């Protein structure tokens, strides 16, 4: 530190080399100058009154430690931030009242503080702009930091959160109402073993007692190689949960519809050149196809070969419709064909419909479709045709019988007329 002594009139009587160098003076140059030469010109007048007031009151005083405005002026007129300590020296040998001042150049400290303040401000802005909640926990699970989103999501003020045990306050119960032991808490475990974790099936409890579905990740915090806490980042997944529930219900209804209609879906990549397609388990069950990895089968060697084995005429129509759908001359692939099931050799009839997907140039890239087992309907149709043909034969026999009866009745009436007798039958034409 720079050191100086000035008398009751504010004249510097002693200055150490450090202070003289700090203010840009040569050794021995400062004594004899008024202390105000080291003070910014704008405050020199006020400084005289402050100096005289201190000289009359005395005591030890630190200046500049609580304010950023205290500055010193170098010989070349440039200024710099300083801290000053004052102490009144005892009167000895008729010297009168003297004041000793210690002066510290805090330029580097102020620059570091400015950098730190800028970093803190940037961090506050970043943390305040994200919608995810971010908390810092110490090794005991106590909240040492929260960003504004935490209060917005959970309803607690920052003052209500800091210093509180997070698990006890908001993570104490499972979504189904069961007690949540701390030993099972991923946030706590990360603070113990230093393993980062991600969880998406738990809730945090708001101040009003309602549950907030969250996904959170935990990251261990180390200081000097020692595990000192955890940072937890969590987000509200209420909308995602609702969307997942809607999707689950849609899938449930779709599965029910597929089960009730004995249907399955399939997908044919058209731009890979390998002529394979992917079947769903339901579609494979309809076709009697043996399970394959990813339910993947060859389009021609497997599917079409079994279509031909089921009914060649239907296979020809099906292949023509498939190619027409790829060419775009029909709105969609739509075919009814027979299929010889590989697992048992039985023939089933299916109704298949597929939609072609094309890229920006119009080239087919995929076909997605559904297959429905229509064997029962096909058999019912065949039985209906057979019954209708049988009914037609019966009707024909009935008509022939009626016509023969009329002929016989006519012959009887004619014989009776030859014998002069009245007709026995009344014949309606």
Task: From the alpha carbons, calculate the radius of gyration and give it in angstroms.
Answer: 49 Å
The total beta strand count reads: 17
Determine the number of helices (DSSP H or I, runs of at least 4 residues).
12
Most strands sheet:
6 strands, antiparallel
* Gross morphology: rod-shaped
Helical percentage: 25-40%
| Overall pLDDT confidence | 87
Provide the succession of SSEs.
EEHHEEEEHEEHHHHEEEHEEHEHHEEEH
Low-confidence spans: pLDDT under 50, at least 5 residues? none
How far is the first residue's CA from the last residue's CA?
Answer: 142 Å
The portion of residues forming beta strands comes to: 25-35%
Secondary structural class? alpha+beta
Question: What is this structure, in a nutshell?
Answer:
It is built from twelve helices and 17 strands. The chain has 429 residues and is α+β, with helices and mostly antiparallel strands.
Task: Give an account of the 3D structure.
This protein is α+β, with helices and mostly antiparallel strands and 429 residues long. The protein has helices at residues 17-22, 44-57, 107-129, 148-154, 158-161, 166-170, 186-193, 238-260, 281-287, 299-310, 312-327, 375-418, and strands at 2-7, 12-15, 60-63, 71-73, 79-89, 98-105, 133-138, 143-146, 197-205, 211-223, 226-236, 263-269, 276-279, 296-298, 333-340, 347-358, 364-373. Strands 1, 2, 3, 4, 5 and 6 form a six-stranded antiparallel sheet that branches. It is rod-shaped. The N and C termini lie far apart (142 Å). The model has no long low-confidence stretch (mean pLDDT 87).
